[in-house]
Design a protein that fits this description.
homodimer; about 350 residues; alpha/beta; Aspartate Aminotransferase, domain 2; Aspartate Aminotransferase, domain 1; 2 domains; three-stranded antiparallel β-sheet; 12 strands
């Protein structure tokens, strides 16, 4: 859900990309993003594309042909980043788990220690499974072998503390439409000083010109050198979203998402549903309960949208038909939003033949 | 200038990327783009990025490592596409001319015949110089040696007839913010059936995953397979812009731009200014007069924006300080728009010390 103020901001007249007003807008965005990423990185701005553009910018700029990239692979976006790394000619090694499972600190450390890669990639909030991985132990292990760490924070940024600096993440990217509640189309990215140093000492040019972070940096930094024409309208929207977040306070916003998540989990438990991921490993703004035995997830989702105007997603890949994926973020992450959803969901389950087990009652 | 209706369209609520309403919006856009490109190509949609993303998609998808790409190089964007091709590991050969000069049919043909490249690239409307090159003779020569042709139509689409099919262009890309008068952020692209065939028979994967046209096609075509999340808001804006163009009629819109251009050239001539590019080779919506002897282009531009609120651009690269670049497109390409500009420009020139030569008077 996008706030009305954000739609209003996007109807402001478009100005030139070197206009002092627009430059001020880009600076505001960078300041807001640093707070939400939890970083002091100068090198923080937006890539002109969606979350996958940020993912590919992270891969293309830090992989040189023949480098080894180690992926902690337990979901759809771990597979996507592996595929991108192969295309940019990395040697990809993977530690695999079933979708929905997490890596223990020891497993991650042992894998990184053994492989000694140039780059490690993990997904902090895996949209396909609901697993949250803060990343501190991964980053610690990676830095011991002098590897950089890329973290996918597409689903976490704005809804949960990402803590780039505290976790030791070198490169994190995200999107504008989930936790930030702006329209899709921009990909926030932040790069640590040690990763910037690595970037500046590359031996080969980045093959993806459009995603070349050093060229983008020359536009966003003082020299304002032309690279491409950013989408002024989307910057207006993101800037207003970040202003709304600043007014609430980042800590308050994160707490609100945690409370809505806990209320939802409790409600789902009372309905007799189990969560796919154990407590402590769950994303707050994307809740993934298991579809109860004998219930068709597609029928429930169809009923929800047709009778209540609420869209939730199903599982896909190995989780197809097995889970519901319930986004509860931005303005919707409230007591009322949660209760309204639970009431509709309970009705939809019943209409699709679900009978609560006696124990849960 | 973006029409108020386009801003209104962009404040429509965001829906999901598989929502039937959004699918209808994407189909409308594809139909509108085909008319303006002058093509029957099925493979016509938008890349989620600015014009340079469309440029790189064209290069990355049709270049395989070691292929030869021939560039007709007479301006800034010819250099940019050469740079991209090198990064995607093409062997780049160039026929060079000074900025502002055009290639004769014979020169282009002789170059292509001699080099026998896999791909030829040219810029139909070169923003840095004001030169327009329709491309028919280039395409004819390229097809004789079985090469594909990429055309940059960033500045021409929507303001001039691009005539993809009539000229024989295989791949054309553009942007949303110039001739189409929507906000920046999307890059329309069209691919001929013979180029699609070449794409399908690639031996290597496209290194730029985000710009992989076959993956995008799977989303835009019937299968609706997820690739990335397009910016719903920008699609609403582009769709409304194309509706406005349809209401006026493409032919009428092109004629209006031609008339405004002719009126402006006449007015500039009466002021004693010369155009950089000879008649018949000029872009209609981007007019490039030479800065008169003894006048500082920066002062004139500063005066124009401070006293009249009108922004025009200067030259850059080898044309720095030597030309003005005057965009006259979309709603502004009218008799009134032209006269208003000429009156302000004349005042600004005089204020900056320009005295009309006696002959021009």
């Amino acid at each position: 859900m996008v706030e009305p103020r954000v739609y209003e901001a996007m109807s402001q007249p478009i100005v030139g990309i070197f206009d002092p007003y627009f430059v001020a807008v880009t600076e505001d965005i960078r300041t807001g993003l640093r707070e939400l990423f939890g970083t002091g990185n100068d090198f923080t701005f937006t890539v002109s594309g969606t979350g996958s553009a940020g993912m590919e910018a992270s891969v293309a700029n830090f992989v040189e042909p023949g480098m080894k990239m180690a992926v902690l692979a337990n979901g759809f976006f771990c597979d996507r980043i592996s595929e991108m790394a192969r295309r940019h000619r990395a040697e990809v090694v993977r530690l695999e788990k079933s979708w929905g499972e997490s890596f223990s600190d020891a497993e991650a450390q042992e894998f990184i220690q053994r492989e000694r890669p140039h780059i490690v990639a993990f997904v902090q909030a895996e949209t396909s499974t609901g697993v949250f991985t803060p990343g501190k132990s991964i980053c610690d292990a990676a830095h011991k072998v002098d590897a950089l760490v890329i973290a996918d924070t597409v689903t976490s940024l704005g809804a949960m503390p990402v803590e780039v600096d505290r976790n030791g993440i070198d490169i994190a990217y995200s999107c504008s439409q989930k936790g930030l509640s702006a329209p899709p189309g921009l990909s926030p990215i932040t790069v640590s000083p040690r990763a910037v140093e690595r970037l500046r000492s590359r031996k080969t040019a980045v093959d993806a010109w459009y995603l070349d972070l050093q060229l983008m940096d020359e536009y966003f930094e003082a020299s304002k050198k032309y690279h491409h024409t950013p989408s002024i309208t989307l910057f207006y929207g993101l800037s207003e979203s970040l202003r709304i977040i600043r007014e609430e306070g980042a800590q308050n916003r994160w707490s609100r998402h945690r409370r809505a998540h806990e209320r939802l989990v409790q409600g789902l438990k009372e309905l007799g549903l189990e969560m796919l991921v154990p407590a402590g490993r769950r994303i707050w703004n994307l809740n993934i309960p298991v579809v109860p035995e004998g219930v068709s997830d597609a029928s429930v989702r169809k009923h929800l949208i047709e009778h209540h105007g609420i869209e939730i997603l199903g599982g896909f890949g190995p989780l197809a038909g097995k889970v519901f994926r319930i986004g509860l973020m931005g303005p919707l992450a409230s007591e009322e939003g949660t209760d309204q959803f639970l009431s509709a969901f309970s009705e939809a389950l019943a209409a699709c033949g679900y009978r609560m087990p006696t124990l849960a009652r």
